[in-house]
């Protein structure tokens, strides 16, 4: 079975770097399903093609099948499996192009991260029509066109004179501007879906594999239900698990994270040149670097927005994400792509189920604890518990805390007494925040510096207020 992948345009010569396969070499890989060969039949300044050829041993396939059960049938000897692009080709893609599939390229990180002009051809795709489609070609379009591909699906009649009707195979060509890792992930998932078969037993780990490879496109795909059912061979418990996980991801995209949401300007107020959440991220990371922290806890980490940036900082040796919700931690794990992280990054990251308002001895001894847009989600009578837990028990060298500035709500046109998000239990004015911060610093042996984050209004101040606490003995 054969797959060719062509990249066009001035960046085409980078394809070898993106695939981590040298264009001047023919490379062979021995896989459980057969022997895979990667070669480049075309290499020009503006067009480079890589080919993956998978050769399956048909005799070995029959022998393994016969050893696993009694009896023989004609299909044991007459089969399309060595030629049709099935789950065996998907496995080969995953093994041979694993680094590209995970979106990593040290040589061309920008190209790996963004869409590039691609043309993919798979000459023999088994396409079993589904409900609502008369032909396999129609199903191919239903699966790939929503992902931004221009689809050419050619079906030929088979038989000595073509009288046997259309063959259940499609000569498939996909053309579009798509991120290479997404293109490979889509093929990895959808080739077995089109075939509606797998050459191996579907176990529970297939759920995580599907969610991982479908990240960024499957949750919102209009044929998600069909894809999940076919990929998991209609195993009801697996289908329900995968559907729940994908639904959670879709909700997290459609609904802004309460910790990151801000009212939209009506055009008459002050509007920051970049989103406030990004300005806040930069302010917090600048503070982390300013204090020289090497071991950092994001307490109330949510889905890992800050964790991702902390992991990318080589000066930080240990990152811990803590959240009270196990479901949110699962989303963080998916969004961070733990299986795609380098060994070094994976070793420096931990995700803990815990709470900011309860003592957790594991939090002791860190250079910094981040509390970013967390405190306003607590009931006011629980603030004392947070103080005791963070400043009294954990006692990090530094605490970086942000919270909305209620004075600024008038700029957003919010009525007095209305919070920026329905889950907020309170919001402090600048005077109230300063009084609390100075009080907790005095009670627990810290000094505090107050800062504003975001566009400054002469009367209302900045939309976000930041407190940088430093333990007094840590300064000495």
How would you summarize what this structure contains?
The chain is of the alpha/beta class. 35% of the residues lie in helices and 22% in strands. It folds into two domains: 2-200, c-terminal autoproteolytic domain of nucleoporin nup98; 276-475, Vaccinia Virus protein VP39 (Rossmann fold), CATH 3.40.50.
Strand content: 15-25%
Helix residue percentage: 25-40%
State the end-to-end distance. 68 Å
CATH fold name of the largest domain, please?
Answer: Rossmann fold
Would you identify the CATH architecture of the largest domain? Answer: 3-Layer(aba) Sandwich
By DSSP, the count of extended strands is 14
Whole-number total of structural domains: 2
How many DSSP H or I helices?
A: 17
Shape: elongated
Major beta sheet, strand line-up: 2-3-4-1-5-7-6
CATH homologous superfamily title of the largest domain: Vaccinia Virus protein VP39
Largest sheet: 7 strands, antiparallel
User: Given the helix and strand composition, which structural class is it?
Assistant: alpha/beta
| Overall residue-averaged pLDDT value | 85
Low-confidence stretches: 251-272
Q: Supply Rg.
A: 27 Å
């Amino acid at each position: 079975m054969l797959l060719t992948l062509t990249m066009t345009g001035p960046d085409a010569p980078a394809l070898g770097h993106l695939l981590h396969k040298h264009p001047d070499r023919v490379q062979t890989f021995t896989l459980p399903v057969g022997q895979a060969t990667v070669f480049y039949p075309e290499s020009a300044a503006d067009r480079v093609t890589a080919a993956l050829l998978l050769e399956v041993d048909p005799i070995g396939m029959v022998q393994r099948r016969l050893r696993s059960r009694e009896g023989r049938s004609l299909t044991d000897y007459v089969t399309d499996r060595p030629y049709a692009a099935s789950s065996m080709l998907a496995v080969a893609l995953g093994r041979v192009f694993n680094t590209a599939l995970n979106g990593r390229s040290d040589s061309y990180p920008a190209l790996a991260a963004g869409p590039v002009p691609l043309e993919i051809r798979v000459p023999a795709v088994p396409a079993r029509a589904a409900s609502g489609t008369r032909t396999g070609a129609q199903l191919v379009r239903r699966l790939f066109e929503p992902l931004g591909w221009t689809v050419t699906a050619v079906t030929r009649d088979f038989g000595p004179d073509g009288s046997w009707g259309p063959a259940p195979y499609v000569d498939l060509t996909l053309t579009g501007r798509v991120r290479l890792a997404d293109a490979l992930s889509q093929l990895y998932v959808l080739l077995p879906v089109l075939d509606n078969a797998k050459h191996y037993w579907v176990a529970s780990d297939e759920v995580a594999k599907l969610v991982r490879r479908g990240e960024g496109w499957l949750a919102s795909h209009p044929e998600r239900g069909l894809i999940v059912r076919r990929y998991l061979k209609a195993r009801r418990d697996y289908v329900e698990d995968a559907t729940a996980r994908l639904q959670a991801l879709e909700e997290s995209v459609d609904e802004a994270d309460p910790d990151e949401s801000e009212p939209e300007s009506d055009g008459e107020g002050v509007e920051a040149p970049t989103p406030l959440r990004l300005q806040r991220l930069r302010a917090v990371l600048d503070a982390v670097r300013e204090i020289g922290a090497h071991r950092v806890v994001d307490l109330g980490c949510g889905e890992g927005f800050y964790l991702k940036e902390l992991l990318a900082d080589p000066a930080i040796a240990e990152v811990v994400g803590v959240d009270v919700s196990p479901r949110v931690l699962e989303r963080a794990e998916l969004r961070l792509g733990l299986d795609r992280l380098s060994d070094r990054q994976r070793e420096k990251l931990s995700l803990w189920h815990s709470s900011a308002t309860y003592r957790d001895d594991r939090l002791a001894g860190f250079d910094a604890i981040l509390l970013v847009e967390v405190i306003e989600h607590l009931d006011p009578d629980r603030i004392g518990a947070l103080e005791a837990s963070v400043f009294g028990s954990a006692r990090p060298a530094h605490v970086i805390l942000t919270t909305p500035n209620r004075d600024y709500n008038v700029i957003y046109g919010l009525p007095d007494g209305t919070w920026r998000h329905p889950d907020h239990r309170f919001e402090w004015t600048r005077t109230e925040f300063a009084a609390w911060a100075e009080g907790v610093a005095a009670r627990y042996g810290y000094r505090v510096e107050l800062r504003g984050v975001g566009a400054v209004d002469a009367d209302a101040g900045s939309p976000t207020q930041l407190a940088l606490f430093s333990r007094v003995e840590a300064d000495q």
